[in-house]
Amino acid sequence: MNAVNILIGLMPMIGWGVFPILTGKFGGKPVNQIVGATYGTFLSAIVVTLVLQTPILTGKAFLFTFLSGACWSIAQSLVFYAFAEMGVSKTMPVSTGFQLIGTSLWGVIVLGEWPSVTAKLIGFFSIVLIIIGVYLTTYSEKKVSESESNVVKGITLVLIATIGYVGYSAFPQAVTVDGFQAFLPQAFGMAVASTVFAFITKSNREAKPYRSKSTYLNIISGIFFAFAALTYLISSRKDVNGLATGFTLSQMNVLIATLGGIYILHEHKTHKEMVMVLSGLVLVVIAGVITAFI
């Protein structure tokens, strides 16, 4: 693996790291956040397509990349609810860990990545490190039952969301498309799914997301997500980093998102909790580095 590929693989870290911090700052309910973010991504995709004059996908290629975006939109909606339950700084490491495990297993089992026995042993060792790291980041000194209930609910939401995130990564791998070509239909899938989400429940309709300032502010967060999504589509191609390695590199965004949640969104941590969070993040990063060089 060369340095240029690794650099491409790390670019999504910036956009995906800043993304949850901005949605936290701009506020609003999950429906405001997902609608604003997906519309921002879709607008960015239109601009990229027009500037680069990228051919429009059709048929199976369009369908699979569209489904990829829809999967992400559903998953991210659940994660926004998890943010409300346990905060960005606690949700992001859990989400990252689950996604790393799910996507790596898909890449290995279905796509045949990490082909040698040694590669598999190293890869699964890194997954164990991730599990331990995620566990450390969820540590809390508070023994209040309500707080524990919120964490359990948040983790359950993230676990379900992981299925959607794996679909987001896996669907584009089923067809041979350029990352720039996949960007527009994927973003379109995100926007369509979020629009359905905005009207599907009574509470979402009553929130009137299209009349809320936070929805339109979250378009900005969507632009940051768009940068990450586009560079990830390029990185995860087999001739660049592949799915297992490309996704693992991208998920180093957990550093920016978790620390941003603590220092920018002011999610309080005791000294012991902070030590546990940092220790967990170190393990997740070590696992990511190991995976990148398999």
TrEMBL record:
Segments traversing the membrane: 6-22, 34-56, 62-84, 96-115, 121-139, 151-171, 183-203, 215-234, 246-265, 274-293
InterPro entries: EmrE-like, Sugar_transport
Record key words, sorted: Membrane, Sugar transport, Transmembrane, Transmembrane helix, Transport
Membrane disposition: Multi-pass membrane protein
Molecular function as annotated in GO: carbohydrate transmembrane transporter activity
CDD domains xrefs: ribose_uptake_RbsU (cd23111)
Localization terms from the record: Cell membrane
Pfam families reported for this sequence: Sugar_transport
GO cellular component, one term: plasma membrane
Origin superkingdom: Bacteria
UniProt family annotation: Belongs to the GRP transporter (TC 2.A.7.5) family.
Name assigned to this protein: Ribose uptake protein RbsU
